[in-house]
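Escalation from tier 1.

The customer reports that the assembly of two entities below gives different C-alpha coordinates on two consecutive runs. Tier 1 could not reproduce it. I'm attaching the input and our single run for tier 2 to review.
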Amino acid sequence: MTPTLDVSPAPGAAPMARMVAAQAAAEVRATLRNGEQLLLTLIIPVLLLAGFSAAPLLDLGEVRRVDFLAPGVLALAVMSTAFTGQAIATGFERRYGVLKRLGATPLSRTGLMLAKTAAVIAVEVVQVAVIAGVALALGWRPQGSPLTAALLIVLGTAAFSGLGLLMAGTLRAEATLAAANLVYLVLLGCGGVVFPLTAFPEAVRPALELLPITALTGGLREVLAEGAALPLGPAAVLVVWAAAALALAARTFRWE
Amino acid sequence: MDRTRSVSVRPQPNDQNPMNNSGIPQIGLNFRAEILDARLSAPFPAAEPRAGPSRRLLTLVGMESAAVEIDGLVKRYGRTTAIDGLTLTARRGEVTAILGPNGAGKTSTIEICEGFRQADGGVVRVLGLDPARPELRARVGVMLQAGGVPPAARAGEWLRLVSRFYARPLDPAALLDRLGLTGHARTPYRRLSGGQQQRISLAAAVIGRPELVFLDEPSAGLDPQARHACWDLVGDLRRAGVSVVLTTHHMDEAEKLADHVVIIDRGRVVAEGSPATLTGAERQLRFRARPGLNLDELLTGLPDGSAAKESPAGHYIIEGPASAGVGPELLATVTAWCAAEGVTADDLSIERRTLEDVFLELTGRELR
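Tier 1 run:
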Protein backbone atom coordinates (compact mmCIF):
# COMPACT_ATOMS: atom_id res chain seq x y z
CA MET A 1 0.00 0.00 0.00
CA THR A 2 1.79 3.06 -1.21
CA PRO A 3 0.10 6.32 -0.35
CA THR A 4 -0.74 8.61 -3.22
CA LEU A 5 1.20 11.79 -3.53
CA ASP A 6 0.30 14.66 -5.81
CA VAL A 7 3.49 15.21 -7.77
CA SER A 8 1.85 17.26 -10.52
CA PRO A 9 4.03 20.21 -11.55
CA ALA A 10 3.72 23.31 -9.37
CA PRO A 11 7.15 24.85 -9.72
CA GLY A 12 8.26 28.05 -8.06
CA ALA A 13 11.05 29.41 -5.91
CA ALA A 14 10.54 30.38 -2.29
CA PRO A 15 11.21 34.01 -1.34
CA MET A 16 14.94 34.72 -1.06
CA ALA A 17 14.72 35.55 2.67
CA ARG A 18 13.12 32.19 3.45
CA MET A 19 15.75 30.29 1.47
CA VAL A 20 18.62 32.13 3.15
CA ALA A 21 17.11 31.67 6.62
CA ALA A 22 16.59 27.94 6.03
CA GLN A 23 20.12 27.42 4.76
CA ALA A 24 21.65 29.53 7.56
CA ALA A 25 19.70 27.57 10.19
CA ALA A 26 20.93 24.30 8.68
CA GLU A 27 24.53 25.52 8.80
CA VAL A 28 24.25 26.65 12.43
CA ARG A 29 22.73 23.30 13.34
CA ALA A 30 25.54 21.48 11.56
CA THR A 31 28.19 23.51 13.39
CA LEU A 32 26.71 23.15 16.84
CA ARG A 33 26.19 19.42 16.31
CA ASN A 34 29.73 18.76 15.13
CA GLY A 35 32.05 17.75 17.97
CA GLU A 36 35.28 18.90 16.32
CA GLN A 37 33.74 22.24 15.48
CA LEU A 38 32.55 22.74 19.05
CA LEU A 39 36.00 21.90 20.33
CA LEU A 40 37.47 24.54 18.08
CA THR A 41 34.86 27.24 18.51
CA LEU A 42 33.96 26.98 22.19
CA ILE A 43 35.87 24.46 24.24
CA ILE A 44 39.44 25.47 23.37
CA PRO A 45 38.76 29.22 23.73
CA VAL A 46 37.02 28.75 27.09
CA LEU A 47 39.78 26.45 28.39
CA LEU A 48 42.48 28.91 27.34
CA LEU A 49 40.60 31.75 28.99
CA ALA A 50 39.98 29.90 32.25
CA GLY A 51 43.36 28.16 32.36
CA PHE A 52 45.60 31.14 31.71
CA SER A 53 43.45 33.37 33.94
CA ALA A 54 43.86 30.99 36.85
CA ALA A 55 47.49 30.01 36.43
CA PRO A 56 50.21 32.65 36.82
CA LEU A 57 52.06 31.63 33.65
CA LEU A 58 52.03 34.92 31.81
CA ASP A 59 54.18 37.91 32.65
CA LEU A 60 51.83 40.82 32.05
CA GLY A 61 53.11 43.41 34.52
CA GLU A 62 50.30 45.49 35.97
CA VAL A 63 47.51 44.17 33.73
CA ARG A 64 45.09 41.65 35.26
CA ARG A 65 45.31 38.35 33.43
CA VAL A 66 41.61 38.02 32.61
CA ASP A 67 41.48 41.58 31.24
CA PHE A 68 44.37 40.70 28.91
CA LEU A 69 43.05 37.27 27.94
CA ALA A 70 39.35 37.97 27.28
CA PRO A 71 39.89 40.15 24.15
CA GLY A 72 42.46 37.69 22.78
CA VAL A 73 40.15 34.73 23.29
CA LEU A 74 37.26 36.62 21.65
CA ALA A 75 39.51 37.16 18.62
CA LEU A 76 40.43 33.49 18.65
CA ALA A 77 36.75 32.57 18.69
CA VAL A 78 36.10 34.74 15.64
CA MET A 79 39.02 33.12 13.81
CA SER A 80 37.90 29.61 14.75
CA THR A 81 34.41 30.12 13.33
CA ALA A 82 34.93 32.44 10.38
CA PHE A 83 38.20 30.90 9.20
CA THR A 84 38.90 27.39 10.47
CA GLY A 85 35.34 26.11 10.84
CA GLN A 86 34.05 27.69 7.67
CA ALA A 87 37.03 26.58 5.58
CA ILE A 88 36.73 22.95 6.69
CA ALA A 89 32.94 22.80 6.41
CA THR A 90 32.87 24.47 3.01
CA GLY A 91 35.78 22.38 1.73
CA PHE A 92 33.91 19.19 2.56
CA GLU A 93 30.66 20.55 1.15
CA ARG A 94 32.49 21.04 -2.09
CA ARG A 95 34.02 17.59 -1.91
CA TYR A 96 30.69 15.88 -1.18
CA GLY A 97 28.95 17.67 -4.04
CA VAL A 98 26.71 19.62 -1.65
CA LEU A 99 27.63 22.96 -3.20
CA LYS A 100 26.95 21.50 -6.63
CA ARG A 101 23.58 20.10 -5.52
CA LEU A 102 22.56 23.37 -3.89
CA GLY A 103 23.46 25.03 -7.20
CA ALA A 104 20.60 23.08 -8.76
CA THR A 105 18.07 24.56 -6.32
CA PRO A 106 16.61 28.07 -6.48
CA LEU A 107 19.06 29.15 -3.75
CA SER A 108 21.51 31.35 -5.67
CA ARG A 109 25.21 31.52 -4.93
CA THR A 110 24.68 34.98 -3.48
CA GLY A 111 21.96 33.51 -1.28
CA LEU A 112 24.27 30.71 -0.18
CA MET A 113 27.03 33.18 0.73
CA LEU A 114 24.55 35.32 2.66
CA ALA A 115 23.41 32.22 4.53
CA LYS A 116 26.98 31.24 5.36
CA THR A 117 27.70 34.74 6.64
CA ALA A 118 24.54 34.77 8.73
CA ALA A 119 25.41 31.35 10.16
CA VAL A 120 28.95 32.49 11.08
CA ILE A 121 27.58 35.58 12.81
CA ALA A 122 24.98 33.54 14.68
CA VAL A 123 27.64 31.15 15.96
CA GLU A 124 29.83 34.11 16.94
CA VAL A 125 26.97 35.55 18.97
CA VAL A 126 26.81 32.30 20.91
CA GLN A 127 30.59 32.31 21.35
CA VAL A 128 30.72 35.92 22.55
CA ALA A 129 27.93 35.26 25.03
CA VAL A 130 29.64 32.16 26.47
CA ILE A 131 33.15 33.64 26.53
CA ALA A 132 32.03 36.97 27.97
CA GLY A 133 30.00 35.12 30.58
CA VAL A 134 32.97 33.00 31.65
CA ALA A 135 35.28 36.04 31.62
CA LEU A 136 32.87 38.11 33.74
CA ALA A 137 32.63 35.24 36.18
CA LEU A 138 36.42 35.31 36.37
CA GLY A 139 36.34 38.99 37.23
CA TRP A 140 36.73 40.58 33.78
CA ARG A 141 36.14 44.34 33.77
CA PRO A 142 35.69 45.34 30.12
CA GLN A 143 36.30 48.96 29.14
CA GLY A 144 35.44 50.86 25.98
CA SER A 145 32.42 50.71 23.70
CA PRO A 146 30.85 47.33 22.91
CA LEU A 147 29.86 48.75 19.52
CA THR A 148 33.47 49.50 18.63
CA ALA A 149 34.39 45.96 19.65
CA ALA A 150 31.52 44.61 17.54
CA LEU A 151 32.75 46.61 14.55
CA LEU A 152 36.22 45.09 14.91
CA ILE A 153 34.67 41.64 15.15
CA VAL A 154 32.72 42.27 11.92
CA LEU A 155 35.90 43.37 10.13
CA GLY A 156 37.75 40.34 11.49
CA THR A 157 34.91 38.07 10.39
CA ALA A 158 35.11 39.46 6.86
CA ALA A 159 38.89 38.99 6.71
CA PHE A 160 38.82 35.44 8.12
CA SER A 161 35.82 34.39 6.02
CA GLY A 162 37.64 35.56 2.91
CA LEU A 163 40.72 33.53 3.85
CA GLY A 164 38.65 30.48 4.78
CA LEU A 165 36.65 30.52 1.54
CA LEU A 166 39.82 31.13 -0.47
CA MET A 167 41.24 27.95 1.00
CA ALA A 168 38.02 25.91 0.73
CA GLY A 169 37.41 26.93 -2.86
CA THR A 170 40.85 26.03 -4.18
CA LEU A 171 42.40 23.22 -2.14
CA ARG A 172 41.26 19.62 -1.80
CA ALA A 173 39.07 19.04 1.26
CA GLU A 174 41.76 17.06 3.10
CA ALA A 175 44.37 19.73 2.36
CA THR A 176 41.96 22.38 3.61
CA LEU A 177 41.38 20.42 6.80
CA ALA A 178 45.11 20.13 7.47
CA ALA A 179 46.01 23.67 6.44
CA ALA A 180 43.14 25.32 8.30
CA ASN A 181 44.08 23.59 11.54
CA LEU A 182 47.75 24.38 11.07
CA VAL A 183 47.06 28.05 10.39
CA TYR A 184 44.77 28.12 13.44
CA LEU A 185 47.55 26.79 15.66
CA VAL A 186 50.24 29.07 14.24
CA LEU A 187 48.06 32.17 14.52
CA LEU A 188 46.96 31.14 18.02
CA GLY A 189 50.61 30.94 19.01
CA CYS A 190 52.00 34.09 17.46
CA GLY A 191 49.01 36.41 17.07
CA GLY A 192 48.92 37.81 20.60
CA VAL A 193 45.94 35.67 21.58
CA VAL A 194 47.43 34.31 24.79
CA PHE A 195 51.10 35.25 24.62
CA PRO A 196 51.70 38.97 24.34
CA LEU A 197 53.66 40.17 21.32
CA THR A 198 56.36 41.38 23.71
CA ALA A 199 57.26 37.72 24.15
CA PHE A 200 58.60 37.72 20.57
CA PRO A 201 61.93 39.19 19.37
CA GLU A 202 61.59 42.83 18.42
CA ALA A 203 62.68 42.14 14.83
CA VAL A 204 59.63 40.00 14.01
CA ARG A 205 57.03 42.10 15.81
CA PRO A 206 56.26 44.48 12.90
CA ALA A 207 55.58 41.48 10.66
CA LEU A 208 53.39 39.82 13.30
CA GLU A 209 51.39 43.01 13.66
CA LEU A 210 50.33 42.72 10.02
CA LEU A 211 48.63 39.35 10.64
CA PRO A 212 44.82 39.53 10.76
CA ILE A 213 44.71 37.73 14.12
CA THR A 214 47.18 40.21 15.65
CA ALA A 215 45.19 43.12 14.29
CA LEU A 216 42.01 41.70 15.82
CA THR A 217 43.52 40.82 19.20
CA GLY A 218 45.43 44.12 19.36
CA GLY A 219 42.39 46.15 18.32
CA LEU A 220 40.02 44.41 20.75
CA ARG A 221 42.56 44.80 23.54
CA GLU A 222 42.96 48.51 22.92
CA VAL A 223 39.19 48.93 23.13
CA LEU A 224 38.24 46.45 25.85
CA ALA A 225 41.32 46.64 28.08
CA GLU A 226 42.30 50.26 27.62
CA GLY A 227 39.00 51.87 26.69
CA ALA A 228 40.33 53.30 23.41
CA ALA A 229 38.16 54.55 20.52
CA LEU A 230 38.32 52.64 17.23
CA PRO A 231 42.00 51.75 16.76
CA LEU A 232 42.68 52.79 13.18
CA GLY A 233 45.87 50.80 12.56
CA PRO A 234 44.41 47.35 13.35
CA ALA A 235 41.12 48.27 11.63
CA ALA A 236 43.01 49.20 8.47
CA VAL A 237 44.96 45.92 8.53
CA LEU A 238 41.68 43.97 8.80
CA VAL A 239 40.05 45.95 5.98
CA VAL A 240 42.99 45.23 3.65
CA TRP A 241 42.95 41.51 4.50
CA ALA A 242 39.18 41.35 4.01
CA ALA A 243 39.23 43.13 0.66
CA ALA A 244 42.14 41.12 -0.71
CA ALA A 245 40.97 37.70 0.53
CA LEU A 246 37.32 38.13 -0.48
CA ALA A 247 38.26 39.42 -3.94
CA LEU A 248 40.69 36.57 -4.49
CA ALA A 249 38.22 33.98 -3.16
CA ALA A 250 35.50 35.31 -5.48
CA ARG A 251 37.85 34.94 -8.46
CA THR A 252 39.25 31.52 -7.65
CA PHE A 253 36.41 29.66 -5.91
CA ARG A 254 35.59 26.36 -7.63
CA TRP A 255 32.14 25.06 -6.80
CA GLU A 256 32.86 21.50 -7.87
CA MET B 1 27.38 -9.78 -39.20
CA ASP B 2 26.92 -9.76 -42.96
CA ARG B 3 24.27 -12.40 -42.69
CA THR B 4 22.34 -10.36 -40.24
CA ARG B 5 22.42 -7.32 -42.42
CA SER B 6 21.35 -9.16 -45.50
CA VAL B 7 17.99 -9.68 -43.90
CA SER B 8 17.35 -7.01 -41.41
CA VAL B 9 18.41 -4.05 -43.42
CA ARG B 10 16.00 -4.82 -46.17
CA PRO B 11 13.42 -2.08 -46.37
CA GLN B 12 9.97 -3.05 -45.31
CA PRO B 13 7.31 -1.06 -47.07
CA ASN B 14 4.82 0.52 -44.78
CA ASP B 15 3.16 3.88 -44.99
CA GLN B 16 0.53 3.75 -42.32
CA ASN B 17 2.78 3.93 -39.33
CA PRO B 18 2.75 7.40 -37.86
CA MET B 19 6.14 6.67 -36.35
CA ASN B 20 7.68 6.55 -39.77
CA ASN B 21 9.09 9.99 -39.53
CA SER B 22 9.98 10.17 -35.94
CA GLY B 23 12.37 8.33 -33.79
CA ILE B 24 14.59 7.38 -36.67
CA PRO B 25 18.24 7.82 -35.83
CA GLN B 26 19.17 11.19 -37.16
CA ILE B 27 22.88 11.25 -36.88
CA GLY B 28 25.79 9.11 -36.06
CA LEU B 29 24.56 6.19 -38.08
CA ASN B 30 27.11 3.53 -38.36
CA PHE B 31 26.17 0.53 -40.31
CA ARG B 32 24.97 -1.30 -37.21
CA ALA B 33 22.40 1.38 -36.69
CA GLU B 34 21.00 0.69 -40.12
CA ILE B 35 19.68 -2.54 -38.73
CA LEU B 36 17.45 -0.53 -36.49
CA ASP B 37 16.70 1.98 -39.14
CA ALA B 38 14.98 -0.72 -41.08
CA ARG B 39 13.27 -2.04 -38.00
CA LEU B 40 11.89 1.34 -37.17
CA SER B 41 9.92 1.41 -40.35
CA ALA B 42 8.33 -1.93 -39.65
CA PRO B 43 4.64 -1.92 -38.73
CA PHE B 44 4.07 -1.69 -35.00
CA PRO B 45 0.48 -0.73 -34.33
CA ALA B 46 1.00 -0.42 -30.61
CA ALA B 47 4.01 1.82 -30.83
CA GLU B 48 3.98 5.08 -28.89
CA PRO B 49 0.31 5.84 -28.52
CA ARG B 50 1.21 8.95 -26.54
CA ALA B 51 3.39 10.43 -29.21
CA GLY B 52 1.03 10.89 -32.08
CA PRO B 53 1.67 13.19 -35.00
CA SER B 54 -0.30 16.11 -33.58
CA ARG B 55 1.93 16.40 -30.55
CA ARG B 56 5.00 16.13 -32.70
CA LEU B 57 3.65 18.75 -35.07
CA LEU B 58 3.16 21.16 -32.20
CA THR B 59 6.75 20.65 -31.20
CA LEU B 60 7.96 21.11 -34.74
CA VAL B 61 6.14 24.37 -35.31
CA GLY B 62 7.36 25.66 -32.01
CA MET B 63 4.01 26.02 -30.32
CA GLU B 64 5.21 23.83 -27.51
CA SER B 65 8.87 23.75 -26.67
CA ALA B 66 10.28 20.33 -25.92
CA ALA B 67 11.37 19.41 -22.41
CA VAL B 68 14.92 19.12 -23.71
CA GLU B 69 16.22 19.90 -27.15
CA ILE B 70 19.85 19.16 -27.98
CA ASP B 71 21.29 19.87 -31.40
CA GLY B 72 24.84 19.06 -32.41
CA LEU B 73 26.17 19.08 -28.83
CA VAL B 74 29.95 18.87 -28.49
CA LYS B 75 31.88 18.52 -25.23
CA ARG B 76 35.63 18.03 -24.93
CA TYR B 77 37.79 17.27 -21.92
CA GLY B 78 41.32 18.09 -22.92
CA ARG B 79 41.92 16.15 -26.10
CA THR B 80 39.10 13.69 -25.49
CA THR B 81 35.84 14.39 -27.24
CA ALA B 82 33.21 13.11 -24.82
CA ILE B 83 30.20 14.29 -26.81
CA ASP B 84 30.53 14.42 -30.54
CA GLY B 85 27.63 16.12 -32.26
CA LEU B 86 24.80 14.67 -30.19
CA THR B 87 21.25 15.51 -31.20
CA LEU B 88 18.15 14.47 -29.32
CA THR B 89 14.75 15.66 -28.22
CA ALA B 90 12.97 14.76 -24.99
CA ARG B 91 9.29 15.54 -25.35
CA ARG B 92 7.18 17.06 -22.62
CA GLY B 93 5.26 14.74 -20.38
CA GLU B 94 7.30 11.74 -21.46
CA VAL B 95 9.95 9.63 -19.82
CA THR B 96 13.09 9.71 -21.95
CA ALA B 97 15.82 7.20 -21.13
CA ILE B 98 19.39 7.77 -22.24
CA LEU B 99 21.14 4.42 -22.51
CA GLY B 100 24.78 3.88 -23.19
CA PRO B 101 27.89 2.08 -22.02
CA ASN B 102 30.22 3.66 -19.49
CA GLY B 103 31.95 6.67 -20.98
CA ALA B 104 29.35 7.09 -23.71
CA GLY B 105 28.66 10.66 -22.60
CA LYS B 106 25.43 10.17 -20.63
CA THR B 107 26.41 12.09 -17.52
CA SER B 108 28.16 14.83 -19.49
CA THR B 109 25.02 15.32 -21.55
CA ILE B 110 22.71 15.43 -18.55
CA GLU B 111 25.01 17.75 -16.58
CA ILE B 112 25.13 20.20 -19.47
CA CYS B 113 21.33 20.18 -19.46
CA GLU B 114 21.38 20.79 -15.69
CA GLY B 115 23.63 23.81 -16.19
CA PHE B 116 26.61 22.29 -14.34
CA ARG B 117 28.87 22.13 -17.38
CA GLN B 118 29.41 24.27 -20.42
CA ALA B 119 28.99 22.90 -23.92
CA ASP B 120 31.85 23.38 -26.37
CA GLY B 121 29.52 23.40 -29.33
CA GLY B 122 25.92 22.92 -30.40
CA VAL B 123 22.68 24.17 -28.94
CA VAL B 124 20.92 22.97 -25.78
CA ARG B 125 17.47 24.16 -24.76
CA VAL B 126 15.77 23.08 -21.53
CA LEU B 127 12.06 23.96 -21.44
CA GLY B 128 12.94 26.26 -24.33
CA LEU B 129 15.62 28.10 -22.34
CA ASP B 130 19.39 28.21 -22.11
CA PRO B 131 20.36 25.73 -19.33
CA ALA B 132 22.26 28.49 -17.49
CA ARG B 133 19.10 30.54 -16.92
CA PRO B 134 18.49 30.86 -13.15
CA GLU B 135 14.70 30.63 -13.48
CA LEU B 136 15.13 27.00 -14.53
CA ARG B 137 16.39 26.08 -11.06
CA ALA B 138 12.84 26.26 -9.67
CA ARG B 139 11.31 24.38 -12.62
CA VAL B 140 13.81 21.54 -12.95
CA GLY B 141 14.56 18.80 -10.39
CA VAL B 142 17.98 17.19 -10.32
CA MET B 143 19.28 13.89 -8.99
CA LEU B 144 23.06 13.64 -9.21
CA GLN B 145 24.71 10.33 -9.90
CA ALA B 146 26.35 10.41 -6.46
CA GLY B 147 26.69 12.60 -3.40
CA GLY B 148 25.17 16.03 -3.02
CA VAL B 149 24.03 15.54 0.57
CA PRO B 150 26.04 16.48 3.69
CA PRO B 151 26.99 13.14 5.32
CA ALA B 152 26.02 14.33 8.79
CA ALA B 153 22.63 15.76 7.77
CA ARG B 154 19.65 13.73 8.88
CA ALA B 155 17.54 12.47 6.01
CA GLY B 156 14.38 14.26 7.07
CA GLU B 157 16.19 17.49 7.83
CA TRP B 158 17.87 17.53 4.45
CA LEU B 159 14.54 17.07 2.66
CA ARG B 160 12.93 19.77 4.81
CA LEU B 161 15.78 22.13 3.96
CA VAL B 162 15.50 21.49 0.23
CA SER B 163 11.72 21.86 0.42
CA ARG B 164 12.13 25.38 1.87
CA PHE B 165 13.74 26.53 -1.37
CA TYR B 166 10.47 26.05 -3.25
CA ALA B 167 7.15 27.85 -3.25
CA ARG B 168 4.81 24.83 -3.23
CA PRO B 169 6.88 21.82 -2.17
CA LEU B 170 5.70 18.32 -1.44
CA ASP B 171 5.40 17.44 2.21
CA PRO B 172 8.79 15.94 3.17
CA ALA B 173 7.19 13.46 5.57
CA ALA B 174 4.75 12.22 2.92
CA LEU B 175 7.56 11.85 0.42
CA LEU B 176 9.68 9.88 2.90
CA ASP B 177 6.67 7.69 3.53
CA ARG B 178 6.14 7.19 -0.20
CA LEU B 179 9.72 6.00 -0.60
CA GLY B 180 9.63 3.76 2.46
CA LEU B 181 12.05 5.90 4.47
CA THR B 182 9.86 7.10 7.32
CA GLY B 183 11.84 5.06 9.83
CA HIS B 184 15.04 6.75 8.71
CA ALA B 185 13.99 10.40 8.93
CA ARG B 186 16.36 10.98 11.85
CA THR B 187 19.22 8.89 10.50
CA PRO B 188 22.30 10.79 9.32
CA TYR B 189 22.76 10.43 5.57
CA ARG B 190 26.12 8.66 5.92
CA ARG B 191 24.52 5.88 7.99
CA LEU B 192 21.93 5.09 5.34
CA SER B 193 22.50 2.20 2.95
CA GLY B 194 23.41 3.00 -0.64
CA GLY B 195 19.87 2.36 -1.77
CA GLN B 196 18.41 4.57 0.95
CA GLN B 197 20.82 7.35 0.01
CA GLN B 198 19.73 7.03 -3.62
CA ARG B 199 16.10 7.39 -2.57
CA ILE B 200 16.86 10.52 -0.55
CA SER B 201 18.49 12.03 -3.62
CA LEU B 202 15.51 11.02 -5.71
CA ALA B 203 13.15 12.58 -3.18
CA ALA B 204 15.13 15.83 -3.22
CA ALA B 205 14.85 15.93 -7.01
CA VAL B 206 11.06 15.89 -6.97
CA ILE B 207 10.25 17.75 -3.75
CA GLY B 208 9.96 21.15 -5.44
CA ARG B 209 7.21 19.84 -7.79
CA PRO B 210 9.24 20.44 -10.93
CA GLU B 211 8.03 20.31 -14.55
CA LEU B 212 11.09 18.41 -15.61
CA VAL B 213 13.29 15.98 -13.67
CA PHE B 214 16.79 14.80 -14.55
CA LEU B 215 17.73 11.52 -12.92
CA ASP B 216 21.29 10.30 -13.40
CA GLU B 217 21.22 6.52 -12.86
CA PRO B 218 18.35 6.65 -10.36
CA SER B 219 18.28 2.95 -9.56
CA ALA B 220 22.00 2.24 -9.42
CA GLY B 221 22.72 0.22 -6.31
CA LEU B 222 19.08 -0.25 -5.33
CA ASP B 223 17.77 -3.55 -4.07
CA PRO B 224 14.70 -4.89 -5.89
CA GLN B 225 12.17 -3.35 -3.47
CA ALA B 226 13.78 0.06 -3.59
CA ARG B 227 14.02 -0.20 -7.34
CA HIS B 228 10.31 -0.75 -7.62
CA ALA B 229 9.64 2.15 -5.27
CA CYS B 230 11.78 4.29 -7.56
CA TRP B 231 9.99 3.04 -10.67
CA ASP B 232 6.61 3.65 -9.07
CA LEU B 233 7.57 7.24 -8.34
CA VAL B 234 8.75 7.76 -11.93
CA GLY B 235 5.41 6.31 -13.03
CA ASP B 236 3.59 8.79 -10.79
CA LEU B 237 5.59 11.64 -12.27
CA ARG B 238 4.75 10.55 -15.80
CA ARG B 239 1.06 10.25 -15.01
CA ALA B 240 1.13 13.69 -13.41
CA GLY B 241 2.57 15.17 -16.60
CA VAL B 242 6.11 15.70 -15.38
CA SER B 243 8.80 15.25 -18.03
CA VAL B 244 11.55 12.89 -16.96
CA VAL B 245 14.99 12.44 -18.49
CA LEU B 246 16.99 9.62 -16.96
CA THR B 247 20.18 7.76 -17.69
CA THR B 248 20.52 4.09 -16.99
CA HIS B 249 22.50 0.95 -17.61
CA HIS B 250 19.49 -1.22 -16.90
CA MET B 251 17.72 -2.25 -20.05
CA ASP B 252 14.70 -3.49 -18.13
CA GLU B 253 14.41 -0.08 -16.51
CA ALA B 254 14.40 1.67 -19.86
CA GLU B 255 12.03 -0.90 -21.29
CA LYS B 256 9.63 -0.56 -18.40
CA LEU B 257 9.70 3.17 -17.78
CA ALA B 258 10.56 4.99 -20.93
CA ASP B 259 8.34 6.35 -23.68
CA HIS B 260 11.43 7.16 -25.65
CA VAL B 261 14.83 5.51 -25.52
CA VAL B 262 17.96 7.14 -26.86
CA ILE B 263 20.99 4.89 -27.17
CA ILE B 264 24.25 6.78 -27.23
CA ASP B 265 27.77 5.53 -27.76
CA ARG B 266 31.01 7.44 -28.03
CA GLY B 267 29.16 10.72 -27.61
CA ARG B 268 26.70 10.20 -30.46
CA VAL B 269 23.16 8.92 -30.79
CA VAL B 270 23.25 5.51 -32.41
CA ALA B 271 19.53 4.79 -32.22
CA GLU B 272 16.34 6.11 -30.72
CA GLY B 273 12.69 5.26 -30.54
CA SER B 274 10.17 3.72 -28.20
CA PRO B 275 11.26 0.47 -26.56
CA ALA B 276 8.86 -1.34 -28.89
CA THR B 277 10.22 0.24 -32.04
CA LEU B 278 13.77 -0.42 -30.99
CA THR B 279 13.27 -4.06 -30.15
CA GLY B 280 10.93 -4.67 -33.06
CA ALA B 281 7.86 -6.85 -33.13
CA GLU B 282 9.56 -9.80 -34.73
CA ARG B 283 10.43 -12.80 -32.72
CA GLN B 284 13.67 -14.65 -32.78
CA LEU B 285 14.62 -18.24 -32.27
CA ARG B 286 17.45 -18.59 -29.80
CA PHE B 287 19.43 -21.54 -28.57
CA ARG B 288 22.77 -22.48 -27.15
CA ALA B 289 25.04 -25.14 -28.63
CA ARG B 290 28.71 -25.76 -29.17
CA PRO B 291 30.44 -22.81 -30.83
CA GLY B 292 31.33 -22.69 -34.50
CA LEU B 293 28.30 -24.29 -36.19
CA ASN B 294 28.20 -23.65 -39.93
CA LEU B 295 25.32 -21.22 -40.21
CA ASP B 296 25.75 -20.69 -43.95
CA GLU B 297 24.69 -24.28 -44.40
CA LEU B 298 21.68 -23.76 -42.14
CA LEU B 299 20.64 -20.67 -44.07
CA THR B 300 20.46 -22.52 -47.35
CA GLY B 301 17.64 -24.57 -45.86
CA LEU B 302 15.71 -21.59 -44.50
CA PRO B 303 13.31 -19.32 -46.43
CA ASP B 304 14.79 -16.36 -48.28
CA GLY B 305 15.24 -13.37 -46.02
CA SER B 306 16.10 -15.39 -42.93
CA ALA B 307 19.14 -14.51 -40.85
CA ALA B 308 21.34 -16.45 -38.49
CA LYS B 309 24.18 -15.41 -36.28
CA GLU B 310 26.32 -16.59 -33.45
CA SER B 311 26.81 -13.93 -30.82
CA PRO B 312 28.54 -14.41 -28.46
CA ALA B 313 30.21 -17.76 -29.15
CA GLY B 314 27.83 -20.65 -28.60
CA HIS B 315 24.71 -18.47 -28.56
CA TYR B 316 22.71 -18.65 -31.76
CA ILE B 317 19.97 -16.32 -32.95
CA ILE B 318 17.83 -17.13 -35.96
CA GLU B 319 15.38 -14.71 -37.53
CA GLY B 320 12.78 -15.62 -40.10
CA PRO B 321 11.83 -13.49 -43.11
CA ALA B 322 10.17 -10.20 -42.21
CA SER B 323 6.81 -11.33 -43.55
CA ALA B 324 6.65 -14.65 -41.74
CA GLY B 325 8.89 -14.39 -38.71
CA VAL B 326 9.61 -17.52 -36.77
CA GLY B 327 6.93 -20.02 -37.68
CA PRO B 328 6.53 -23.73 -37.00
CA GLU B 329 8.31 -24.67 -40.22
CA LEU B 330 11.37 -22.60 -39.45
CA LEU B 331 11.49 -24.11 -36.00
CA ALA B 332 11.25 -27.60 -37.45
CA THR B 333 13.98 -26.88 -40.00
CA VAL B 334 16.35 -25.56 -37.39
CA THR B 335 15.84 -28.42 -34.96
CA ALA B 336 16.15 -30.98 -37.77
CA TRP B 337 19.39 -29.36 -38.84
CA CYS B 338 20.66 -29.46 -35.28
CA ALA B 339 19.81 -33.15 -35.12
CA ALA B 340 21.67 -33.74 -38.38
CA GLU B 341 24.67 -31.89 -36.97
CA GLY B 342 24.49 -34.02 -33.87
CA VAL B 343 24.03 -31.09 -31.47
CA THR B 344 21.40 -30.51 -28.84
CA ALA B 345 19.91 -27.05 -28.88
CA ASP B 346 19.89 -25.95 -25.25
CA ASP B 347 17.65 -23.23 -23.81
CA LEU B 348 15.74 -23.07 -27.06
CA SER B 349 13.24 -20.24 -27.04
CA ILE B 350 11.26 -18.01 -29.32
CA GLU B 351 11.03 -14.48 -28.10
CA ARG B 352 11.21 -10.85 -29.07
CA ARG B 353 14.52 -9.13 -29.05
CA THR B 354 15.18 -7.35 -25.80
CA LEU B 355 16.49 -3.85 -25.52
CA GLU B 356 19.65 -5.46 -24.25
CA ASP B 357 20.10 -7.27 -27.56
CA VAL B 358 19.65 -4.02 -29.43
CA PHE B 359 22.01 -2.27 -27.10
CA LEU B 360 24.73 -4.87 -27.48
CA GLU B 361 24.32 -4.97 -31.23
CA LEU B 362 24.80 -1.24 -31.37
CA THR B 363 27.50 -0.70 -28.82
CA GLY B 364 29.39 -3.95 -29.12
CA ARG B 365 30.10 -6.58 -26.56
CA GLU B 366 33.61 -5.69 -25.61
CA LEU B 367 34.07 -4.43 -22.09
CA ARG B 368 35.25 -0.88 -21.67
